Amino acid sequence: MDVRPRVIAALAAHLRDLDLAEEAYAAALEACLCLKDAPSDPPAWIFVVAKRKAIDLIRRSRSEARAYELASASQAEDDPMADILELPDPIPDERLRLIFICCHPSLAPEARVALALKTICGLPVGQIARLFLISEQSMYQRITRAKTKVREAGIPFELPARRHWGDRLGAVLLTLELLYTVAYQDSAAEYDGDLAIEADRLATMVAELCPDEPEALGLAALIALARSRENARLDTFGAMIPLSRQDTSKWDMSAIARARCLLDSAAQLGSPGPCQIMALIQLTHARRAFDIKTDWPAILKLYDALMLLRPSPVVQLNRAIAVAEVEGAASALAELQQIPKERLENARPYHVALSHLYSRMGDNQAAADALDAALLLDPPRAERLLLERRRIELS
Fold it and tell me: How is the chain split among helix, strand and coil, in percent rounded to 5?
């Protein structure tokens, strides 16, 4: 069991400082690893030690009187897990609860998501930056500003009443969507083998907690559909297999059926949104298991709708791939050239798509150059093997 979200939630609620909570937790964890014998109750032990470490850190930056006051308050507590137990519990999961807490409406939407991905989900800043198509330095500054605002504005580390969840739900869903995006890109589970499972679990829990929120149902369906193909994504050498070449007999039909039920429930609520449309795109791909071929015109129409609801360079890129299947590579290349290059030059899918289009048009040198650019962007091992294989074929 990952105790980090639970302990950091309690520390953050007690200290009201995310940086201090993370630093104290890290120091306590280091102390725990140095023990000869594991404590009988690791979360309680780490929590108590982390509070002591926090007091030491406060002494260095604040007056001795303030540090003594915190120390006295800490020693007066009978139950070392009191802060954890006192947190409201309408969400029966520490990590999901803290994601809701971090997605405070006073923070800018992207800042909420970045803060949650860094603090609760533990993603590296560089990885988060790639998700938002900005530099690592810019993302670091964004997260730092968000933490500062949380601290200086005195934003409470408390879960609001359920009637106020709507102010945070969009950021929570985007956090889980991007968390799964990282897991999906890492098809061989090189970075974190449990990341996809965790994103799926949390998205399913949000859908269960918010059954009247169609976008929550849509996200749960989207992740279920993507995970339904996990057993077909790698070949015997560990290289990634593109969706169009996957063996559909290896797809999880029960997960596809579950996603279809979630989308049916969402449709009955009559409020379409980006997560539902993305799930419908994946469901259309899933129909290849029954129809043999992919309905690319339908997928293109869905991307048109997605561009209206959530216009972005990434959506425009994915739409261009559908255009290639419906109207040809030349039309798709024209679509890609409309996107400002600086928005996608650090995005591997952009260079991979360019290579695919150039190859279809017979320009193998341009296709090879695009693959070289993609390989320079440090793809995960499974994707690297696929791209290197394609590079050899072009040669």
Answer: 70, 0, 30
Task: Give the Cα-Cα-Cα angle 136, 140, 144 (nearest 5 degrees).
Answer: 170
Give the mean model confidence (pLDDT) for residues 97-104: 86
CA angle, 115 then 163 then 101, to 5°: 20
Q: Which helix (H) or strand (E) holds 288?
A: helix 288-291
The upper half-sphere exposure of residue 11, i.e. CA atoms within 13 Å in the direction of its Cβ, equals: 33
Gap between the Cα atoms of 57 and 49, Å rounded:
12
pTM across the whole model: 0.82
- 276-315: b or e for each residue (b if 16 or more CB lie within 10 Å)? bbbbbbbbbbbebbeeeebebeebbbbbeebeeeeeebbb
- Fold that domain 326-395 belongs to in CATH: 1.25.40
Q: What is the pLDDT of residues 335-361, one digit of tens each?
A: 998 888 888 888 999 999 999 999 999
183/203 Cα distance (integer angstroms)? 14
Query: Domains of the chain: which residue ranges?
Result: 4-86, 89-154+166-183+196-210, 213-225+249-311, 326-395
